[in-house]
Design goal:
By secondary structure, this protein is mainly α. It has 11 helices and no strands. Helix 5 packs antiparallel against helix 10 and helix 6 runs parallel beside helix 8. The mean pLDDT is 87.
Amino acid sequence: MTLADIADVPQAAWVVIAALLGLIFGSFVTALSYRLPRGEDFVNARSKCPACGTSLAARDLIPVVSWIFNRARCRVCASVVSVRYPLTEILMAVLFTSAVWHDTRLAELGLLLLSAVIMVTLAIIDLETRRLPMSLLAILALACALLRWFGSGDLAHGLIIGALIAGLGLVTATATRIWLGAPIIGAGDAYALGIAGLALPWAVFDVFLAMAGGLGLALGVGLRVVRGERMFPFAPVMFAALWFSLVFQEQLIGLVAEL
């Protein structure tokens, strides 16, 4: 079943709907990425200003719009509200839009959108805390396994490749921690690589690795030059490469076949 089967609505209209949903889920991602690492309730607790603790009203929670009209400040205590909130909401709108534009099959689309929510949440958490919650990685792995099943159907092959890649990553992390005193990649990064191996056919996985490696090198050099940091969070570039590889998978397969 596709979006066209639900209602006689042109794809462009579905794209607009997806953008609006992306903004809403972007607001959820900002709350989840802030509360989960701190052990706070992200289901029932009301949103509040982290500076003064005031519960936010509905007019303070309109994606992007509230941040602009409140001039990037809390309406009560005037403390600065980070730009990461509207940027995350806009990013989610872009990701949701790209997913609907390239795949209108309901099952695959729903899994893509769920994957976008989890990947962006993980990327933000990794940027801020340098760790990846296993609960979110497990949900992402399940979504990617179902995507592999609905797509190519060779789920068993994906599970084997994903497990081997994750195992190799864990061995690398342990060995480099012993020999160098610090791991090249973390355990969470190893699991994320395994998830990519689970989700992508081998030809597309090669493209993913090249893309993630290039983005990681650029980020690492940039942080070293600007901030003098030797270590950097690798998950955000991995998930950026994974999302691109998932959404444009058919085009990448065709491109690789022509080479």
